[in-house]
Structure formats: structure tokens, C-alpha cells
Amino acid sequence: MRTRTRKIDDPNLAAEILQSGGIVAFPTETVYGLGVDATNADAVDRLFAAKGRPTDNPLIVHLADWTLWNMAAKSITESAAALLKQFSPGPITVVLPKRDEICNQVTAGLASVGIRVPRHDAALEILRSAGIPIAAPSANNSGRPSCTTWQSVLEDLDGKVDAVFESAPCSIGLESTVVDCRDETPIVLRAGGVSTEQIRNFFPQTTINTKATSGGSIVSPGTHHAHYQPSAVVHLVQSDFLETDAARKIDTNSAFCGLRTGPNSEAGNLPLELCQLFENTDAYAQGFYELLREVDRRGIKNVYIEIASGDGLSTALRDRQFRAAGQ
Ligand code: TXA
Ligand code: MG
């Protein structure tokens, strides 16, 4: 029988488990990560198996400081250095040529590697104490909404990973922005905590390409897989949804989430199993995955989600909402 996952709160202990090839779920400012030594092929294989992650989807390598980039990357470009310097520690991942010591499984056989420095005290202490590059995907069963609390991590992975680091809920709640910086013009591959507008302040030519492949070559691997999906049926709706006739006809076994504005303040009048209204976009982003998980915990069949509007973090939230709906 599998032993249960240990709950820990000592960064040095987390580092020791990682150094000896173990798997540790640890908090970051975005979502919980599932860490493993990026140079240990057996450990990386076990991580893919624990998550049920498709092996063609590469992992991000986490470092204690951006100046340690050469622990994972072979070379660095000016754009990568500028973005890391500006936004690290923080919710940005830059893609660079991979260094040989990083296992091929980590990068799904690609010659490139994503590197990131989380803005989270415990994460940084663990990374400093371990002194090795740590590959870490989001700490959830593959395809499910990401985890922003240690309790959610255990819901998915108890008994499958060695330890979970207990900490407060993740503050941003959505994953890092992934930017390919191998050429001087950055390409945003996944929207996240650092907005494209912020990146364009430094590199106005920055492009966006969130397609899995382009012209036969791999651009943003893994984006073609299912992501962030609850068991409930997801219905994406506009901000005036609650004023429409359709809203009055929804199944009573439903949940609604959106911003606490205008018509939504009337949501309490509908016979909903669960209604979560967020004060602003930051709160919506922070609570979004946990809301999806709560819908499933309660066995609710339908979840109505107000589509986030606007740029900045809303772009990342909207991306996750569409993917949660399988679009
Ligand atoms: O905020 C985050 O990034 C979180 C925390 C734990 O750091 N991690 C995370 O990992 O979201 P994951 O595995 O759920 O998503 C990694 C994303 C995937 O979309 C993957 O395709 C992309 O990063 N990625 C990783 N390495 C890449 C590479 N070499 N080239 C292109 N995309 C890459
Ligand atoms: Mg993920």
C-alpha cells in the first residue's frame, strides 16, 4: 500500500527530499508546483506518472535567482535577460536553449527549456536550500484545474507524491506568462501574471502565439491537451447573463461565478447551488481554480462563468476560462 503524502513546512526538509529524488508540491505566487530534480531522469519519470501528464508537454525549470540561468539554459539572449531582470522573481517563464544536464524528459525532447524564478518566500528558500534546478509543473492531476491551496493538491495527489508544503493560498492564482526569448523578438506562448502590455513596454515588437504548432514546427507544446477542466459542464456567459431569460431557465443544480457588478449583484435571487462573486479581476483570478474545484466537490452539474473582459490579468483569466470550457 502507498504511504500517504507527508505534510511539511520546513524548506530545508523539502530541499532534502528533492535532492534525494523525491517529489514535493510547493507553493508559488501563481499556483502550487510539483517539484523534482530536473537532472534526475527517474524522478522526472515518476513525476509525469504521478500527474498522468502527457510526455510531450515540457516542464518549467525553477531557479532561486535569474542570474543562475545557466543551471538550466545553455545561453541567454538580451531579451531574456532584460525580461528576467525586470520581472523576476515573478510570474514569468522565459524559453531559452536547453543545457545538456537538464533531462530530455523535462523538456519533452525539445532543445529549449523554460526557466522561472517564483516570487514566493518559501519557494525561494526551498530552491536556495536545494541548490539544484527544480522542474515543476502545476501540482494537479493532468487536465484538471490547477491547485492554489495545499488541500487541493492532496485532493488530487495524496499518496502519489512524497510531500506537500503547507502554506497560505497562492496570491495570483493563474500560471506564469511563458515567453519564447530565443530570438530577440519575444513571443508570448501563454498569457499569465505578467501581461503582454508590460512586456511590450520593453519589446514593442513582441508577438503572441498560443498555438501548439505552426507550419509543422512545435511552438507552444502541450497547449493542445485538455487543461483546467472541472467535471461540471462549463457554460461561458457574458456580463449581462443574469438579466437574460436564459438565466431564469437554468438547472437548479448549477453554480455561477463572475464579478460583483451591475446585474450580478442580483445573483442571489436565482436558485443556485453556489454563487461566487468576486470584488475585482485580481480576486477573480485568485479564486477561479478553487471555485471550479468547489463546484466538483459539491457534485454540481453546471457552472456558468462570466467571461473576463479587458486586458492585463483578464487576458490570462479569459484564456483559462475558454480552456476550462474545452475551447
Ligand atoms: O506559474 C507557473 O508557470 C506554474 C508554477 C508551478 O511555476 N507552472 C506551470 O507549469 O504552470 P505547467 O507544467 O502547468 O505549464 C508549463 C507550460 C506549458 O504550457 C508548457 O507547454 C510550457 O510551459 N513550456 C514549458 N517548457 C517549454 C518550452 N521549452 N517551450 C515552450 N513551452 C514550454
Ligand atoms: Mg498546468
Please provide a written account of the structure:
By secondary structure, the protein is of the alpha/beta class. 26% of the residues lie in helices and 20% in strands. The protein contains 9 helices and 17 strands. It has helices at residues 11-19, 41-51, 78-87, 121-130, 150-157, 196-200, 245-248, 281-297, 313-324; strands at residues 6-8, 24-26, 33-37, 60-62, 92-97, 112-116, 134-135, 163-165, 177-180, 187-190, 207-208, 213-214, 217-218, 233-237, 254-259, 274-278, 302-306. The strands form 3 sheets. Strands 1-8-2-3-7-4-6-5-9-10-11 form an 11-stranded mixed sheet, with helices on both faces. The protein has a 4-stranded parallel sheet with strand order 14-17-15-16, with helices on one face. Helix 1 (11-19) crosses helix 4 (121-130) and helix 8 packs parallel to helix 9 (313-324). The model has no long low-confidence stretch (mean pLDDT 94). The chain binds threonylcarbamoyladenylate and magnesium ion. Magnesium ion is lined by residues 137-138, 146.
